[in-house]
């Protein structure tokens, strides 16, 4: 194992492992915790704000959503954290690893929950899933950001992010991401490390297990040594984190893991599934026209009001000019674009959820992040001539260089995929130019260039391998997921497991989409169910199976129902 020096911190009294001392009221508060000195927050301040942001992103904290009453809790959990930068062989940049060791660790049923952050989020990204389930029951929890995260490098100030989350100048401290000198303004580890981190997510999880066991020796020396033979190790992850734990299961040749729970995993199964870059670049290209189709009229009004925030007619015209739409009547372009998505395997339910969360600036930025990662770009490489810049709006709405006060919030607030405060993609000159960007990003998948060959090879390297025959794998996926549709991911993966006689449970959850954090918006909370209660139930079921020998349940499509404008009740969730 190759790790940086370890930073230990204690979290007791007015602080804790699960909520950083914010408790129920602080996590639910609309205002993020503030820094006493805006330009120079302390490590405790950035940690508290990062935990707040991670909770808000991945849990339904709306008054009617049921978190903390029907399921889950914000119990204060005192204990210690151990942080380090971990290096995989031949990797240019590290991934973060962070075990949390509760004071009330259960020595009689010693347990380590290992998890990877969802999306491109930072180290605390999975705290509402793995931390909220594992820590209160006396398990230690080991996190990895799997080579992503918000440790952005800013060339204007020549600063990056230290192990403790604060910013420092190049050469003065070990940084999360320290690229070679560049003319580009912002460096993002996921995009610009040159490592294709997505291909190594499984290795990051297994390295987090190793580091977690080593830190358990340090935290509880009277119970050492901690090994995979004497410690129950469960892996759990959401979205990209779900992919990471499943990929770890496929690499686990020594039986380190005892069980895996993956929630809405972005999993690529060799030869039988569409990879994430393929279907998201397709959606980014076609949704701008398809959203004007009659099938989306009600959803568009719920999301945008009476008018889309961009000219769907111009989007359709650009697609027709590129030969992707063939109807002679422009009024038919939206339905033709929708039909293309349906023909590609998108389900109506996934498209409806996608219509509610569709934001073209986000699709454009995410496409650039993933294309850059798969093409192994440096900061000064510009796929499709796109780049991130450090800009913010001043009091008059004009764009100015990002200031130190805003940069200080990046690590805590950022989700690993800008745009957000102080980092942006320069806007396209007009809507036709925006479509050209989508065409270019899509061309890396469909084209015949040398770059397209590199990208497709990098995507192929992210495919999962089969887990051990006796390893229980439990998949939970929302049937209405519009970001990672289960048809493209979990369906194919579970079919592959079954065809190869692997142990699996597959829960399909009707009326559930991808991210519980979006349900704080009333229109989404009324329509969709949270997934975290199903993840906690799956972890409970897996624990009973491993600890007590209970039989795993059969795979099922759960009988659920939306809560509408009512308080969430157990009957809505279909968990029996």
TrEMBL record:
Gene3D superfamilies: alpha/beta hydrolase. This is Hydrogenase. GO terms for biological process: butyrate metabolic process. InterPro entries: AB_hydrolase_fold, OHBut_olig_hydro_put. One of its GO terms (cellular component) is extracellular space. The keyword Hydrolase applies. Keywords: Hydrolase. It comes from the Bacteria. The keyword Hydrolase applies. One of its GO terms (molecular function) is hydroxybutyrate-dimer hydrolase activity.
């Amino acid at each position: 194992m190759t790790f940086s020096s370890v930073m230990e911190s204690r979290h007791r009294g007015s602080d804790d492992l699960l909520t950083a001392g914010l408790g129920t009221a602080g996590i639910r508060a609309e205002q993020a915790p503030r820094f006493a000195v805006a330009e120079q927050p302390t490590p405790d301040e950035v940690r508290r704000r990062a935990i707040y942001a991670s909770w808000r992103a991945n849990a339904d904290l709306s008054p009617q959503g049921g978190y903390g009453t029907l399921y889950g809790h914000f119990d204060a959990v005192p204990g210690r954290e151990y942080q380090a930068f971990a290096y995989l062989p031949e990797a240019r940049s590290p991934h973060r690893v962070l075990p949390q060791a509760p004071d009330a660790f259960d020595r009689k049923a010693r347990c380590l929950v290992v998890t990877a952050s969802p999306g491109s989020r930072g180290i605390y990204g999975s705290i509402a899933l793995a931390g909220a389930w594992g820590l209160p029951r006396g398990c230690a929890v080991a996190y990895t950001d799997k080579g992503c995260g918000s440790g952005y490098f800013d060339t204007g100030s020549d600063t990056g992010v230290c192990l403790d989350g604060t910013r420092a100048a190049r050469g003065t401290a070990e940084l999360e991401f320290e690229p070679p000198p560049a003319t580009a303004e912002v460096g993002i580890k996921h995009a610009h490390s040159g490592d294709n981190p997505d291909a190594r997510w499984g290795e990051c999880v297994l390295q987090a297990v190793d580091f977690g066991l080593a830190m358990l020796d340090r935290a509880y020396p009277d119970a050492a040594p901690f090994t995979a033979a004497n410690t129950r190790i469960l892996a759990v992850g959401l979205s990209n984190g779900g992919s990471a734990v499943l990929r770890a299961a496929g690499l686990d040749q020594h039986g380190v893991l005892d069980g895996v729970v993956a929630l809405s995993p972005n999993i690529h199964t060799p030869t039988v599934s569409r990879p994430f870059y393929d279907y998201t670049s397709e959606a980014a290209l076609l949704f701008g026209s398809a959203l004007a189709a009659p099938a989306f009229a009600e959803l568009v009004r719920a999301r945008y009001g009476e008018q889309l925030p961009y000219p769907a007619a111009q989007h359709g015209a650009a697609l027709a000019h590129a030969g992707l739409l063939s109807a002679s009547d422009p009024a038919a372009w939206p339905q033709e674009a929708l039909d293309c998505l349906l023909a590609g395997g998108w389900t109506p339910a996934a498209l409806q959820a996608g219509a509610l969360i569709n934001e073209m600036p986000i699709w454009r930025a995410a496409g650039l992040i993933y294309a850059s990662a798969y093409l192994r770009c440096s900061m000064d490489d510009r796929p499709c001539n796109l780049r991130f810049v450090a800009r913010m709006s001043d009091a008059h709405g004009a764009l100015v260089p990002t200031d130190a006060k805003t940069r200080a919030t990046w690590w805590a607030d950022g989700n690993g995929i800008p745009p957000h405060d102080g980092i942006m993609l320069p806007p396209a000159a007009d809507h036709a130019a925006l479509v050209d960007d989508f065409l270019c990003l899509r061309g890396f998948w469909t084209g015949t260039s040398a770059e397209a060959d590199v990208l497709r090879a990098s995507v192929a390297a992210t495919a999962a391998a089969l887990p051990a025959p006796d390893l229980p794998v439990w998949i939970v996926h929302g049937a209405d997921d519009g970001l990672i549709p289960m048809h493209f991911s979990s369906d194919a993966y579970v079919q592959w497991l079954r065809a190869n006689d692997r142990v699996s449970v597959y829960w399909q959850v009707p009326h559930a989409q991808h991210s519980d954090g979006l349900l704080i918006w009333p229109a989404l909370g009324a329509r969709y169910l949270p997934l975290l209660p199903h993840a906690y139930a799956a972890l409970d079921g897996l624990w009973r199976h491993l600890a007590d020998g209970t039989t795993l349940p059969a795979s099922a499509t759960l009988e659920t129902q939306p809560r509408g404008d009512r308080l969430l009740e157990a009957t809505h969730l279909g968990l029996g």
